[in-house]
Batch of 3 targets.
Target 1
Amino acid sequence: METDPVASRLSAAYSELPPGERAIVRVLLDDYPFAALGSLRALAERAGVSPPTATRLFDRLGYAGFAGFQAAVRDGARDRSRLHEYVARSPGDPHETGSSPLRRAADDLRSGLDGTLAAVSEPLLTAAAALLAEAGAVWALGGPLSELAAEYLIRQLAGLRPRAHRVPGQPQARARTVLDLGPGDVIVAYDFRRYSSATARFVHAARERGARLVLVTDAWESPLAGQAEVLVRLPREAAGPIAPLAHEIAVTELLLVATAARLAPAQRLADLDALTQSLQ
């Protein structure tokens, strides 16, 4: 999607926009290009803003109103997966002369990881680690791909401290989880475009019970960003050649290292190894 000129234009302008117009851009990019093809009023309602706010966005971006924006979307949008879009690039692309798809992917991953690691500061990691170390319980969840990062976090965190759990998938099981949450508990949510409505519902319910939120999201920010006590925002470069999963895992590794430094879990890990051997 990022090679679509309209989507790229929205992404590039995002950081300079006022909050209401950012909300519109998040809706557009979350469901691109389909969110752009309805009415202006419907788009504004989805973003929680007024139609005049939406109109100002398209004027600011230099389109001939909403109609001009829709025309540009129809001309430029392509319904491809990110994987399809990446591997379908021609080797003769003038910007990539002489480079193979594998080399391009390696270069993208390398530059993206450098940017990601630079963006995640030590004070930010320290603040997140304090929550993960001191929480009564830690629950993690993610979307269709980012759930893999949540699973990795919990598998490793469970070796460092007790009461580290994945949020279950079924609504009834999630309801039981929320029922027992309280102010001493922490939710770690991985939420990337397209942002997960199921993740949002769980986090809203957990926050109503007093649980605190550590949110790992992208440069465009999950709608949950305003509820996060610690917000880990990956830069645009963390989109990766196909998906941001490698960057999410890298940030998770840093969160685990910072948490381990607060917990000094050597004895627990030794006991865990011994028990594992005895139960084989």
Target 2
Amino acid sequence: MKHLWIRFGCFLTGYNYNILRNCSEAAFKSVKKYTAAMLIVCILWFFIGFTFAHRYLALGLPGCILAGVLSTVVIVQVEKQIVLSINPGRLLLIFRGCLAFMMSILGAVIIDQILFEKDIEIEKISYISEKVDKILPSKTEELRKQIAVLDTTISKKEEEKESYVDDISKRPTTTATTTTTATRREPVRSVTPSGKDTTIWRTVSDVTVGTTLIPNPKIALIPSLDSTIRALRQQKSQKENELLHMKPSLEKEMKASTGFLDELTIMARMLSASYVALAFWLLWILFFLFIEMLVLFSKMGDKSNDYEKTVMHHMNLQMRRLDALGKGF
């Protein structure tokens, strides 16, 4: 358990504990300092990753924890680029400074959307209302066209029904004619050329025409026509109800589907309208920026310690050994 914090610091910063334990207290302090700075950044970015996954990706607890861990791993790998550099070049310092600036903005944006949640919800009402007002005319126009088509269809069906009813009232019954044909054979007397009487049979058809009164056939069409008109009226009523509640429905739908970019736009509107919110947001950016630059400034302010000189000495010995082996071959 001895030097447990130092071992953890070596794991976090990438230092070799076997080399560090033989170095001076100055090297130990450097590791502790880098560890503390990296822990601050890691805790912040774990919270940012966890919150972003929960709020915008709608992940469960395991997914949010995984997102936080991934954010922390990325930050650790980025910080190691500075911590493990013995003599960091200017290009690396500029690159890390630009990256810190971008990360500070991203972190401030995500954190502020949590801190300004109530204010964003208030501003979201007007934002969504403006978007609905842009979409509403086309949506209502389409519904009105559908209602007009249904009105026309219902009117035609009602006119058709009225014509049926008028015809039925004038002619409640109609005459149906039935024709019955019956055949029979009858004898016919004939005289042959020799003068002899003979009888032959012929087929005779008897046609009987009868009339009966039946109900007007259009009576059977009325129930199906009524059913069609009823269904069309239900559709019209449903469309009119949708038209009546179109705006609240659109507002509810848009509020449920508001994403990260929408909230970013809302926050930009808030910042442009309120100097207090803008000042607070800039303070958060500076706070994140200074924390991101903490490891970089610590590295730039430190002089080379015995750990780094030991590493360089080992490297020089190895290079000489390799050069000697190369000459021997």
Target 3
Amino acid sequence: MTSIGILGAGRVGTNLARKLSAAGHRVTLGVRNPDDTAALAADIGPQIAFADQPTTARATDIVINATLGDTSLDRLAGLRTELSGKLLVDVSNATRDADDGLPGALCYPGSSLAEQLQSALPDTHVVKTLNTMLFMVMTAPETLATPPTVYLSGDDQDAKKTVTGLLGDLGWQPAWIEDLGGITTARATEAMILVVPPVLRRHGFRPFAVSLAR
């Protein structure tokens, strides 16, 4: 059983918290506003703990970044001490919204949020994954009609091996996991977010993943 902290208590964070807790991990959900915890606890159950984000980062073994991507860098750079020596799983996409609220442009063209986080947190092992799908697919990949792909980017092989185990707990089969290489490859998967808005505008909010077909 692993101690996992999730920064961000939106749809992505709470969805991951439920599934990882059900898989037997000790999960702490890091929230910005302590006043939100009562409503969240009623929604997701008593088995998940709550704390502020610095405490969550400090007290857990693995930390998942599920904060809004356009503010993640500033927020997590301020947690450099708490995240030192930790594995940080980054599932966010850093984008600027279009007029309809969907992603319109990348915040870090020619780079990626994951690369920026790794640079700002040199004592942390950053692994990018789960950012090429709608949030419900992260924890239920088997519900798609076509086997989906989840990508891994990171410089530390042991960190990626640990994340591969977590992906298995979320329902991802080994054949669906594609290790792209170092953290610089995250710029490719983060750019895939630009596929999402036209798909949603055309088909509505239906589960899908940007996958590799062979």
